[in-house]
Design brief:
β10, α8 and β11 form a beta-alpha-beta unit. Helix content is 52%, strand content 16%. The strands form three sheets. A five-stranded mixed sheet has the order 2-4-5-7-6. The protein has a five-stranded parallel sheet with strand order 9-8-10-11-12, with helices on both faces. It is built from ten helices and twelve strands. GO terms for molecular function: kinase activity.
């Protein structure tokens, strides 16, 4: 029915209201659609912005990783460069230090007055302190750089304890302390040199911080582990200092009278921690102030634990003295000061010395067939890039026999040690201790 034919007002109002409602709903739907459209555009823009921010962050992280990797590589190179520098610097410093040791030893033999002997002893102590500091700094540098590669072998604890007893008994006697090593017929798996340094540093500290009583070294077996205990009756370590004792240059209060054991540099336990870490040997301790301290070093048991390995070559330095009178020594050394000091010392021991600075000079010296050396002593790094081990080999080949030989070097590398061992040549580190040198020469000649 057309609207003009409807004369019912109320009915017209209802129709109008329905139409208005329909129009309003249509407009609301269009408005909602438009709103959703705007929201979608807004969300799209926000997603795009967040994606761009995420990409930028990822690029930044990637660049940061590249920078960190480069910084790490630079740090590692700097650390290795530092190690090489310290090794080279230590070698150069140890050369004149070695000459000083030898000269002071020769000087000590001509002293007749008590005052002169005391002055010589004071100089020797100062030189020893300098040597200890240089070696310790080099050790820390090499350990931090990770260039120390332990040589794990079966180590006889009885042999090791005997060596330590020989070194520390005089120190204990000077201080009036007891020093006891419990007998042990057992072997462990470790690096002989590093394990000795660990125990040496712990023992040195124990004697330094003990005024009365003494130090006891013993072992306990715990399954496949041997625990080495170093117990002292010293001043003890306070609770608040127990973490700091393994830090560099950390020193406890030295009790009166302890100066006789040496001043100490505060580096001993820092070296212990690094060496023990390289070997995988846990080091712990317990302590009571005023009662003493016990350090524990846990070392794996050797496979053939009760089989005594042969004594280390270094043990030969304690062989009873044989005379060196008339011994012919071919000395090959390119440092003039060391050469002069070593010649003077050997001549004081009544040796007949002929010197050379390179392989060529050494072979020229051997050209005199009326003079055949009883022993060859050579530095490892000689003039013209010559190496002492190769020079000894050429000298032996020229002489047609394996004349006893000794390499004396400040080079700490394992490669030199392995090469000397393979060639059947003894090796000593600079700076030399004259008494040990004389004993080893006597042993080789015997």
């Amino acid at each position: 029915m057309p609207l003009r034919d409807i004369d019912d007002v109320e009915r017209l109002k209802k129709i109008n209201a329905a139409l208005v409602s329909r129009v309003e709903r249509s407009m609301d739907q269009q408005g909602n659609a438009f709103s959703l459209f705007q929201t979608a555009i807004s969300l799209e823009n926000r997603v795009r912005m967040r994606t761009e921010e995420l990409h930028a962050t990822l690029r930044h992280l990637e660049q940061s990783n590249i920078d960190l990797s480069a910084a790490k590589e630079n740090a590692e190179q700097a650390n290795l460069s530092k190690t090489r520098f310290l090794a080279a610097a230590s070698h150069d410093v140890l050369q004149p230090l070695n000459a000083a040791h030898l000269s002071v030893s020769a000087l000590a033999e001509v002293q007749t007055s008590e005052e002169g002997r005391k002055l010589v002893l004071q100089v020797e102590r100062s030189l020893q302190t300098m040597e200890d500091l240089l070696r310790t700094l080099l050790d820390i540098s090499r350990l931090d750089a990770g260039v120390v590669q332990p040589e794990i072998v079966d180590v006889s604890l009885e042999t090791l304890f005997s060596s330590l007893r020989s070194d520390f008994q005089p120190v204990a006697e000077i201080k009036g302390l007891g020093l006891r090593f419990r007998p042990v017929n057992i072997a462990v798996r470790s690096d002989r040199t590093l394990l000795r340094r660990i125990l040496q540093n712990i023992l040195s500290n124990a004697l330094r911080y003990t005024r009365s009583g003494g130090v006891l070294v013993g072992t306990r077996q715990r399954g496949e582990i041997i625990r080495i205990d170093v117990a002292d009756t010293g001043c003890g370590i306070p609770e608040e200092q127990r973490e700091a004792v393994f830090e560099e240059f950390s020193r406890g209060k030295v009790p009166p009278g302890a100066e006789l054991a040496g001043g100490g540099l505060g580096l001993g336990l820092a070296i212990v921690r690094r060496m023990a870490g390289a070997l995988g040997h846990p080091v712990t301790f317990s302590s009571r102030v005023g009662r003493g301290t016990i350090f524990h070093v846990d070392v794996p048991l050797a496979i053939n634990a009760n089989v005594e390995p042969p004594p280390a070559p270094a043990e030969a330095e304690r062989a009873p003295g044989y005379g060196l009178f008339g011994t012919r020594v071919l000395l090959i050394e390119n440092d003039a000061d060391v050469l002069n000091a070593m010649t003077l010392l050997l001549e004081r021991w009544r040796c007949e010395v002929r010197a050379a600075t390179s392989t060529g000079e050494a072979l020229e010296t051997l050209g005199d067939t009326d003079w055949v050396p009883d022993i060859v002593i050579a530095d490892q790094h000689l003039d013209n890039g010559d190496l002492g081990i190769l020079t000894v080999a050429e000298a032996r080949n020229y002489l047609g026999r394996d004349v006893p030989a000794l390499i004396v070097t400040a080079d700490p590398s394992q490669a030199v040690i392995a090469a000397a061992r393979a060639a059947g040549i003894e090796l000593m580190r600079k700076p030399l201790k004259p008494a040990q040198l004389r004993a080893l020469l006597a042993h080789l000649l015997a």
